[in-house]
Amino acid sequence: MNPIRRMLVTGGCGFIGSMFIRLELEAHPDLQIVNLDKLTYAGNLENLADVATNPRYQLVRGDIADRELVGKLIGDGGFDAVVNFAAESHVDRSLLDSGPFIQTNVVGTQVLLDASWQAKVGRYLQVSTDEVYGSLGPTGFFTEETSIAPNSPYSASKAAADFLVRAYCHSFDFPGIITRCSNNYGPYQFPEKLIPLFISNALADKPLPVYGTGLNVRDWIHVADHCRGISAALRLGQVGEVYNFGGRQEQTNLEITHLLLEYLGKPASLIKYVTDRPGHDQRYAIDCTKAETQLAWKPQVPFTAGLRETIDWYRQNGDWVQRIKSGAYLKYYEEQYGNRLSS
Ligand code: NAD
Ligand code: TYD
């Protein structure tokens, strides 16, 4: 593979993609990045305001499922690598309407694969999720060998995309790599996911809607650790391989909720138990030994420090949250939580 000098990143205006672009531009002084983003409700130009005028960065507004646009962009782009973050990413939204998830996550991935293959791009990295493995009981971990058994429309669409990447690698010697990561936390996360939703609600003295018993377990990783893993997989990973990333940091949702409340100095009475998420996966836990041994990667951000920094970031960036939590967000919040919180 050629050294990576020019990279197409998709979905770079979202939570993880924006951190990835920032870190890549910092770490590789000769690297040029083009960011293809549709700017859906989750895409936010403010997330990359600090690099907007960097001459090595360019934003193209567009849809990864737009075959003509993507064919031309990748065909003419001279990219050494394509990294696909673009996705509909929220499980609860996929339960309300799975259509956009199929269109972006599955069709969009197929369009990117076709264009990358045609243009003979040197590396294609598909950013995927541990949720494709389904749910664990009280013991055990997901490894790269765990069978794929997605339970939500979101995870099913991500699994379908992973299978497409696998099939292109198998059938065409396509230079694809898949990474699967556990739950990310950190700055700039859209406040519909557990941690930013609960921080922003608590700051506004609003109820924290805990689904079911609150005893579901997630493995949390700081977004910067995930991005460093993607960067390592892109440069050191083997074509056709899958690499799992996780923080080795399992927490029940209630444990997280109490940590947040304690740090914010808010009362436990803000917790409101609401109807469980349909098909709610019980536990995710990642074995990331393969990435640690083959990519010389390991998670670096200690959980408590990372969480505190994240809380401080949301405290200091109330305007960012306020701008998001208006308009279309209110309609979603009412549809998702209206009945649950009023019962
Ligand atoms: P996000 O929802 O914050 O951002 C998604 C971005 O993709 C937005 O900028 C949005 O505008 C863009 N986008 C959506 N549809 C598009 C389309 N059709 N064409 C172009 N751009 C489009 O998501 P995130 O949390 O940053 O997740 C990024 C990727 O990482 C996703 O593929 C997700 O499945 C995966 N992932 C996320 C987590 C997590 O904890 N958030 C964990 C593991 C894997
Ligand atoms: P989420 O952040 O949506 O990530 P994922 O479903 O992809 O793991 O949810 C994390 C956990 O928090 C999950 O077990 C569902 C739970 N949860 C709540 O209890 N209440 C909420 O309002 C949300 C959004 C999530």
Give the topology, please.
Elements: E1 6-10, H1 15-27, E2 32-37, E3 57-61, H2 67-77, E4 81-84, H3 91-96, H4 99-118, E5 123-129, H5 153-172, E6 176-181, E7 183-185, H6 194-203, E8 208-211, E9 217-222, H7 223-236, E10 242-245, E11 250-252, H8 253-264, E12 271-274, H9 289-294, H10 303-316, H11 318-324, H12 328-342
Parallel strand pairs: 1-2, 1-4, 2-3, 4-5, 5-6, 6-10, 7-9, 8-12
Antiparallel strand pairs: 9-11
Helix pairs in contact: 1-7, 2-4, 4-5, 6-8
The structure holds nicotinamide-adenine-dinucleotide and thymidine-5'-diphosphate.
Nicotinamide-adenine-dinucleotide binds at residues 10-11, 13-17, 36-40, 42-43, 63-65, 85-89, 104, 108, 127, 129, 158, 181, 183-184, 190.
How confident is the prediction overall: mean pLDDT? 97
Order of H and E elements? EHEEHEHHEHEEHEEHEEHEHHHH
Structural class: alpha/beta
Strand content: 15-25%
User: Any guess at the CATH architecture of the domain at 6-186 and 221-248 and 285-300 and 326-340?
Assistant: 3-Layer(aba) Sandwich
H/I helix tally: 12
Name the CATH homologous superfamily of the domain at 6-186 and 221-248 and 285-300 and 326-340. NAD(P)-binding Rossmann-like Domain
CATH fold type of the domain at 6-186 and 221-248 and 285-300 and 326-340: Rossmann fold
Q: Major beta sheet, specifics?
A: 7 strands, parallel
Relative helix content: 40-55%
The shape, in one word, is globular
The N- to C-terminal Cα distance equals: 58 Å
> Low-confidence segments, ≥5 residues, pLDDT <50?
none
What is the spatial order of strands in the main beta sheet? 3-2-1-4-5-6-10
